[in-house]
Amino acid sequence: MCTIFDKRYPAYLLGFILLFIGAQTVLGARQTTHKRDSLKLFHSYLDSLQNAKSRVFAANQEDMKATQPQQEYDEKYYKLFLPLTFYHAPAIHQLYISYSSGLDEPEDVAQTMVDDVLTQTYLNYPDYVSNSERNIRRAGAIRKNETQLKKQDITFTKHVAPQPEEIEDIPVGILIKKPNFWTFSGDSKLQFLQNYISDNWYKGGESNYSMVGNVTLEANYNNKSKFKWDNKLELKLGFKNSKEDTLHKFKTNNDLIRYTGKVGLQATKNWYYSLQFLAYTQFAKGLKSNDPKTYSDFMSPLDLNLGLGMDYSVNTKDNRLKGSVNLSVLSFHFRYVDRKNLASRHGIIGDHHTLEEFGSQITASLTWNICDQVKWNTRYYMYTTYKNVLMEWENTISLQVSKYISANIFLYPRFDDSTKRDEDYGYFQFTEYSSLGFAYSF
Asked: What ranges in 8-152 are assigned the alpha helix state H?
């Protein structure tokens, strides 16, 4: 067709006339057999696309390998696999005389083959054309390849670190709290009791039913820097009323004023170099039933003991057993008796009020919380001049019935070979009582 016409526009007009006549002929034939052959034509269209793709790829494989990468040529064939659209290029290719001349580039060969396939499809299946290139261009969907590299305009700015917000000065009050190295504790009891006293008890007394009050106060200092100072004051006073006693309406059966002070300087973890001071006397007269004689009194005697040695701090991991054991290798014992008629009874010979001795002593004070309701307080004291021995062992077993009610058992054996020997008990003395009453601790 390109050899018959020598001018451009008559050939263009003649191509459109032929295309229109062919389309009308095919359209008339398709209208009569549309329902019957629609499915067959659809599959034929798919097969033709696949065959066209294979034919185009096979024909241009060598040229495409020799020039540019595969992905650049694949872009030429997208028209074959999209929904069928009427493009201008196939019509121009068929109608322009000079369009196919000089096709030396692989890109032009591929474009020519795609246009040929689309032209055959337009002529054979015009009713499957669903869109046109004009509509697509209006929508802006036609892809345009960029041939030049675009550069982005980048402007650099100096990065400045953000400035922190200035906080206004706010007056702040600083409270400096001085550490408190003191600890205070106490225990008080008012008990009703049954009491047994041996006939040779050094303070006198008799077995009876009575009442006793007991107060224990402690103030301890420990600066956690190898220095401690312990202070303990024990006050105990009990009265009884015996029907058998016709001379005394009331008598004391428990009478004690005792202070224990101890200064320690830490040597190792639990050992301290210590200086212990012990002082004890009683409140009132010590009497026996139906006996006018006074066996002891306030400041008669008054015992003072100063011991230098080592102190061991006891504290188990579960904190159930606490206390201390003091070993005073060098101890000075001073005794004062205000009543001269009682001096000889308390070991003072001659017309004197005082007695001075040197010796050694052991003092152990322990508290064992057996369980939440049962507690055992024990105090062991032994002093010896290496001629005479004084030993005291006080034991108090407390059963906490409720918050303010407790039951107590008190056992107190004593040994003193500086006194007159008793025919039945020898140098041993013993007192005990059991009681039930009020108790308060802090």
From this structure: 8-32, 34-67, 70-74, 88-95, 106-124, 133-139
Question: Cα(222)–Cα(182) distance, rounded to whole angstroms?
Answer: 7
In three-state secondary structure terms, 264 is strand
Question: For residues 150 and 375, what is the distance between their CA atoms, to the nearest angstrom?
Answer: 94
Phi, psi of 297 (to 5 degrees): -160, 175
Phi–psi pair at 16, nearest 5 degrees = -65, -35
pLDDT tens for residues 118-171? 888 888 888 888 888 888 778 765 555 556 676 777 776 666 677 777 777 777
The string of pLDDT tens digits covering residues 217-240 is 999 999 888 899 999 999 999 888
Show the tokens assigned to 387. 């001629």
- What pTM, to 2 d.p., does this model score? 0.58
- DSSP single-letter state for residue 422: B
Q: How far is CA 391 from CA 129, 163, 197, 274, 381, in A?
A: 126, 81, 17, 21, 6
Grade residue 323 by pLDDT with cuts at 50, 70 and 90: very high
Q: Where are the alpha helices (DSSP H) in 68-176?
A: 70-74, 88-95, 106-124, 133-139
Bond prior to 292 in cis (omega within 30° of 0): no
Q: Give the Cα separation of 103 and 116 in Å (integer).
A: 14
Whose tokens are 């055992």? That residue is 376
Is 50 exceeded by the pLDDT of residue 6? Answer: no
